[in-house]
């Protein structure tokens, strides 16, 4: 197991038991059986560790959602698949989300808020793409409102998942949300949100430079212990310069990354780069 993953997993157990603020770096290092020096080589502070855990969760969520939206075989069930993928990911990581909500940690950590904004931009881009595909018969002036409605549904029912002691039937929930979103898309005629709103308040995702992508690939290569993932990252890095690999091979390598939770985000960012270059 990679050192960062070891630290994250043990820290999560301690956070769940004692809370984020009450958990010390020393408790984390003792549970991991590593020195404080080893901890600080991986993370500069406990706050950076929390951001790292959030990064791991959100990057996996966004990568999974993006993959579901771009799966051509699922176009007829695109909206359902979007909702289901999102909520399934939330349920998978609900323990950490509940810790953050309980302590209101996000509200007073500026770096964490900045990080959340980054992922929100990616989510906006994904939802806009989905709306454009799934509701192609709807007046385009309604698209910003539809994006806002979908994001409102995501938040409202996420609160239900986190606050309810009962197990939520995800299939039924997602079917209901598809029905409600579709009713609005088909029958709403008055748009409230101008197109410029998202351009101003939620600017589009910034496409990484080749140097930034190489840096991301190299960091992922250092952190992974999986030989298939390492080989895929290496080949993709080499192909950034030569662009000689057939498209089918590149997609196969990206598929390898998507099967490993620690490399899903790298695969997603690679695809963002390729689509825009």
TrEMBL record:
<protein>
    <submittedName>
        <fullName>TetR/AcrR family transcriptional regulator</fullName>
    </submittedName>
</protein>
<feature type="domain" description="HTH tetR-type">
    <location>
        <begin position="1"/>
        <end position="61"/>
    </location>
</feature>
<dbReference type="InterPro" id="IPR050624">
    <property type="entry name" value="HTH-type_Tx_Regulator"/>
</dbReference>
<dbReference type="InterPro" id="IPR009057">
    <property type="entry name" value="Homeodomain-like_sf"/>
</dbReference>
<keyword id="KW-0678">Repressor</keyword>
<feature type="DNA-binding region" description="H-T-H motif">
    <location>
        <begin position="24"/>
        <end position="43"/>
    </location>
</feature>
<keyword id="KW-0238">DNA-binding</keyword>
<dbReference type="Pfam" id="PF00440">
    <property type="entry name" value="TetR_N"/>
</dbReference>
<dbReference type="InterPro" id="IPR001647">
    <property type="entry name" value="HTH_TetR"/>
</dbReference>
């Amino acid at each position: 197991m990679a050192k960062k993953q070891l630290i994250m997993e043990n820290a999560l157990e301690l956070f769940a038991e004692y809370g984020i603020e009450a958990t010390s770096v020393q408790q984390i290092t003792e549970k991991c059986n590593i020195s404080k020096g080893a901890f600080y080589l991986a993370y500069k502070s406990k706050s950076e560790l929390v951001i790292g855990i959030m990064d791991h969760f959100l990057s996996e969520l966004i990568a999974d959602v993006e993959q579901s939206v771009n799966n051509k075989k699922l176009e007829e069930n695109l909206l359902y698949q979007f909702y289901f993928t999102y909520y399934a990911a939330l349920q998978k990581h609900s323990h950490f989300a509940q810790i953050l909500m309980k302590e209101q940690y996000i509200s007073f950590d500026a770096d964490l808020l900045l990080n959340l904004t980054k992922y929100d931009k990616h989510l906006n881009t994904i939802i806009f793409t989905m709306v454009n595909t799934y509701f192609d018969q709807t007046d385009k002036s309604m698209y910003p409102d539809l994006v806002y409605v979908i994001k409102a549904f995501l938040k409202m029912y996420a609160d239900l998942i986190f606050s309810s002691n009962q197990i939520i039937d995800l299939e039924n929930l997602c079917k209901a949300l598809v029905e409600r979103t579709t009713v609005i898309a088909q029958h709403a005629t008055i748009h409230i949100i101008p197109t410029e709103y998202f351009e101003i308040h939620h600017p589009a995702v910034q496409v990484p430079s080749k140097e930034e992508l190489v840096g991301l690939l190299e960091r992922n290569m250092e952190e992974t212990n999986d030989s298939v993932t390492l080989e895929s990252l290496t080949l993709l890095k080499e192909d950034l310069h030569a662009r000689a690999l057939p498209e089918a091979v590149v997609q196969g390598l990206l598929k390898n990354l998507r099967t490993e939770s620690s490399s899903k985000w790298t695969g997603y960012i690679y695809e963002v780069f390729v689509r825009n270059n």
